[in-house]
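Narrative of accomplishments. A recurring question from our advisory board has been how the design workflow behaves on a single, concrete structure rather than in aggregate. To address it, we present the structure tokens for one chain from the evaluation set, followed by the sequence designed for it. No filtering or post-editing was applied between the two.
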């Protein structure tokens, strides 16, 4: 019963009179859970998108493992909803996991690649996080308990620096002006289609009305 209830909370149907027949997959960041993305999901559903909230235990696997899991989740959504184009909205670590999954998809999953339309990343540590670097330098044992943390470091040899860069998808990135975890310059990707910054913090951005509007603009128009 509890599992069924949680399943319903993680799928939000599009408002019928505004139905665009497109899906949005939401993927959350480090040490959060899927329900933190629900406010964004409700907003997008009211604007015609069918929303699926991906939920995972962030600390248990490294980025490669999370990417493989997320690819399988995307495959299931695509198979069960064959008429829907798929968009992805990410927060923080979720953006890096999405890059990892897209690398796997582009390596040989043409069915799924053709279904993905646009991607919006909120405060992604695309070029690593100085805070993650400092934490691991002073408290290296934390990497055993929070497995992706060392991989998110801004060190040149960190895994995030080698993660696949999606070039075949329209990708928009939203940075936060008060972000103390990921700097604005670290959010950029060489392949980004558009980039903007809003007044918010790293975690609070998922509750920001300004962020919601920016996400919707990019999903609709491919620009902010």
């Amino acid at each position: 019963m509890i599992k069924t209830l949680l399943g319903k909370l993680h799928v939000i149907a599009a408002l019928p009179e505004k139905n665009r027949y497109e899906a949005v997959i939401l993927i959350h960041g480090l040490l959060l859970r899927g329900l933190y993305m629900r406010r964004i999901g409700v907003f997008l559903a009211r604007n015609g998108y069918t929303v699926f909230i991906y939920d995972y235990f962030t600390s248990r696997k490294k980025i490669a493992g999370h990417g493989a899991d997320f690819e399988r989740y995307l495959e299931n959504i695509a198979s069960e909803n064959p008429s829907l184009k798929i968009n992805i909205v990410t927060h923080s670590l979720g953006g890096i996991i999405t890059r990892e999954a897209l690398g796997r998809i582009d390596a040989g999953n043409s069915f799924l690649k053709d279904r993905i339309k646009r991607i919006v990343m909120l405060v992604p540590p695309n070029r690593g996080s100085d805070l993650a670097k400092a934490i691991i330098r002073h408290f290296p044992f934390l990497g055993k308990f929070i497995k992706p943390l060392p991989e998110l470091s801004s060190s040149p040899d960190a895994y995030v620096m080698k993660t696949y860069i999606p070039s075949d998808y329209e990708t928009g990135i939203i940075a936060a002006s008060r972000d103390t975890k990921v700097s604005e310059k670290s959010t950029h990707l060489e392949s980004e289609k558009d980039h903007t910054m809003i007044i918010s913090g790293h975690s609070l951005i998922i509750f920001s009305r300004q962020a919601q509007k920016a996400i919707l603009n990019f999903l609709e128009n491919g620009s902010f």
